[in-house]
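S.,

Sequence below, as promised.
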Amino acid sequence: MPPRRLTRELLRAFELAMMLANSRASEVVEISDLLAGLYIDNWERLVKFWPERGPIEAAMRRLCRISPQRWNYWIEYYDLLRREPEKKWKALGIPKIWPRRDKKEFFVAGRNFELSAELAAVLRMADGMAPYMDRVGTKLLPIVSSECILLAIAKGPRSEIGRRLLESGLDLTALEKAARFPRRAPI
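The prediction came back faster than expected:
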């Protein structure tokens, strides 16, 4: 049984994070990979937590280690997702990914991906912030959203990325309100 449920948009961000890790030939998904997935897939939803859009976009590309060439590739990918979501896997030559049963790894393109220790800690912290739970048998699983993850990254005690997000002007109060008291139920 998985330790948590991910919202639909967070699952897409994880898919992108694993593709980024795959493009780096890494077997570990880092916080920067997930942040890049959030940036690419959920940016319209998350940008409202910064007062100015321009400086944070440049900062996010640096934090996520996205080169101009890679940025162009992901913009084309995102455009394809919007136009033809059912064809995304075939057009890009990327097989669909899914979580493995042992909960610590994800599987894509014949490879297993582990979560870095820092990302696993962020997920545990986000579990504690999740406002919704899903009952599976007798167990309650937290439903983690993108806002919960971003908040956990920003509040991480030893996170360099979190410190840089705060320095970029992240409105922590608005983010915490959105994460803990969302306007709509998770999907």
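The chain has one domain: 5-180.

Coffee later?
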